[in-house]
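Case study: DUF1318 domain-containing protein.
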Amino acid sequence: MKFTTRFLLTSVLLLSTGSFAVYASDISMANQCLAYGKRVMKDNQEMMTLLSQAKINEESVQINNYSKALGKQFISTELVAKIHSDQEQPGNILCLFESDDKPLYFHLTLME
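Here is what the predicted structure looks like once written out:
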């Protein structure tokens, strides 16, 4: 009985630690996406103002593994996340990644 209880507790701890690591990784990728968006939009002052105030809604981060060619470009991951700003301007960001650390495409959709 003691073995079963210890096994269950250990399993729960390991599972929760693993899911936290995945969650932290997802948030890190979302931050990479937002940073890439700022680099892409650096010449658009209005977009830079909005993106510099943007905060990622951490619970909304969704990672989709794709791992296929889109035309001639290989895409491994799609990231979608909701953002908000101090101006209460909600929106969604989307990034396509060649690998987990190399964003290739950024798109912002504002909700009005």
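For the exam, be able to explain this: DSSP finds two helices and five strands in the chain.
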